[in-house]
Fold:
Amino acid sequence: MGGHGHGHGHEPYTVPDYKIYKVEDVPELMSTKRALACQGLKDPWLRNEVWRYNPKEFGTEKSRFRLFFYRGFRTGFAAFLITIAGTAIYDKLYPSKHDHHDH
Structure:
């Protein structure tokens, strides 16, 4: 009872040390940092975006693309095949009165 997640065998969430996130480890962010520096600007919060580029957490850009487009492909294709088969069976059991095949 209570439902606060205490004592249910789960480890409490630990916040990772901020020092592990380095802009220098992410080429995309380094180009942003250089572009800002060319204009005399600096983004003190850029380090907060480093975690988004961790392939262990979020995969690569290619793997995210594949996941986005193919996530429900198998289920959708199965539904498509069932619909086609169901329509064909229905048309055989209940032919339309408007089909004029006896010319």
The helical segments are 27-38, 55-58, 61-70, 73-93. The mean pLDDT is 84. The CA atoms of residues 89 and 95 lie 10 Å apart.
